[in-house]
Write a structure and sequence with these properties.
Strand content: 15-25%
Pfam family, one: RecO_C
Radius of gyration: 20 Å
Organism: Paenibacillus sp. BIHB 4019
CATH class of the largest domain: Mainly Alpha
GO cellular component, one term: bacterial nucleoid
Order of helices and strands: EEEEEHHHHEEEHHH
Keywords: DNA damage, DNA recombination, DNA repair
Family: Belongs to the RecO family.
Number of helices: 7
């Protein structure tokens, strides 16, 4: 069967002497693998389609399993994401997270739009850490693990300060906070931003300024949530951590 779908390259692998296999998050058929013959050749007209983070329209034949590229047209090369180290690190993290967290049968067009907005946000100069946390929240939501933040998950109360508990699935009020000593007490600024993250569509994100101390708090919270509920070891996250140490 011949398919024509918009997609974003989330993984690119060498295959044989001259070919590449790409994993593409598509707008309608979820994640698909496509073989691009001759993509490693210097004069290949399809070489650019195999670049990570490329957004393109892919035309390919597929009966079952791996597809074979027939034609492609680049809609956004996102070359900046391959040229600047920090942007490469954040784009690689989102791409690997998407590739590992999504199953072949998942067909979330919403996540495709969120990843597309994530990469565009990086290109446009939006804060990469904040954009990354927003995307992580979308992945948590897709997986059924978005935290409950409007009220205490134990008693329904609203007595602050809240403590966020990954194990409980949301925030605990002042009276219930002792039930999870590993939970993180939230500052007012971090709490407001987390509530924004839960409901924010990345396509609507404008300019946002966050204090460094609040960003550190958010990173700690999101790391806790991702580790417990997603729990996928990612090489790209280690790269991000090394980059953070270098930038200190």
């Amino acid at each position: 069967m011949l398919y024509r779908l918009e997609g974003i390259v989330i993984r690119s692998m060498d295959y044989g002497e001259n070919n590449k296999i790409i994993n593409v998050l598509t707008n309608a058929n979820g994640k698909v693998g496509i073989l691009i013959r001759g993509a490693k050749k210097a004069r290949s007209r399809h070489a650019s389609l195999a670049q990570p983070f490329t957004y393109a329209e892919f035309t390919f034949f597929r009966t079952s399993g791996l597809g074979t590229l027939n034609h492609g047209e680049i809609l956004a090369s996102n070359h900046l994401l391959r040229e600047q180290l920090e942007l490469t690190a954040y784009a690689s993290y989102a791409a690997e997270l998407t590739d590992r967290a999504m199953q072949e049968e998942d067909t979330s067009s919403f996540l495709f739009e969120q990843l597309k907005a994530y990469l565009s946000g990086l290109v446009e100069g939006k804060d990469p850490q904040i954009v990354s946390h927003l995307y992580e929240m979308r992945v948590l939501d897709m997986s059924g693990y978005a935290p409950v933040l409007d009220h205490c998950v134990e008693c329904g109360g609203e007595e602050t300060p809240f403590r966020i508990s990954a194990a409980a699935g949301g925030v605990l009020c002042r009276r219930c906070g002792h039930k999870d000593p590993q939970g993180i007490v939230l500052s007012e600024a971090a709490y407001k931003l987390l509530r924004l993250f839960v409901r924010m569509d990345l396509r609507r994100l404008g300019s946002i300024q966050v204090k460094p101390e609040t960003k550190q708090e958010l990173k700690k919270v999101m790391r806790m949530l991702m580790d417990l509920h997603i729990g996928i070891p990612l090489k790209s996250r280690g790269f991000l951590d090394q980059l953070d140490k270098y930038n200190l």
